[in-house]
Amino acid sequence: MFYRPGLDAHGLPHNPFNAIVTPRPIGWISSRGADGRDNLAPYSFFNAVAYTPPQVMFASTGSKPDRGDGKDSLGNIRETGVFCVNIVEYAARDAMNASSAGFGRDVDEFEEAGIAREPCREIACSRVAGAPAALECRLTQIVKLPGAANHVAFGEVVGVHLRDDCVVAGRFDVTRFNPLSRLGYQDYAVVREVFAMARPGEG
């Protein structure tokens, strides 16, 4: 089949786009507003985008009546210029899902979903206690994308937390915590096995 988004009807019960670009890592974004209130929300349009300096991005693709053209995470980051990316392990799937509810801006998702927090070290923000890894970030830019409420926030990583049990023989071992990833529809996947392949010429 073939269709042109925005021009043709795909004829399927649900939009297939999110099911095509998979699996997608989940950025569990913690932020803090200028009023000192914490926020925590998962974003599946998330990834690392550069090594030196290390940089990440996440896209906010919706809006809330009490936030205008974005969501709480984006609003907080605009106010304070910092955020933290918490890596989601399989064991935290229910807590992550609970934090995705459409709460008002005055609700603290850490409290609402019963998620323990710890302070970041380099930025004024909370992080998920016990997460396999957390990336403390300073905002570099927010880019407005086509569409009513599509924005991408880019951040430079200024602090990295690695849970001790996930570092094995000098490597960050994802099989120790099983990363959760987003598929399409209401589907998720979990990483339980890995394999290695050397690039041509690398031996």
UniProtKB/TrEMBL annotation:
It comes from Rubrimonas cliftonensis. Residues 19-174 form the Flavin reductase like domain. This is NADH-FMN oxidoreductase RutF, flavin reductase (DIM6/NTAB) family. InterPro entries: Flavin_Rdtase-like_dom, Split_barrel_FMN-bd. GO terms for molecular function: FMN binding; oxidoreductase activity, acting on the CH-NH group of donors, NAD or NADP as acceptor. Pfam families: Flavin_Reduct (PF01613). It comes from the Bacteria.
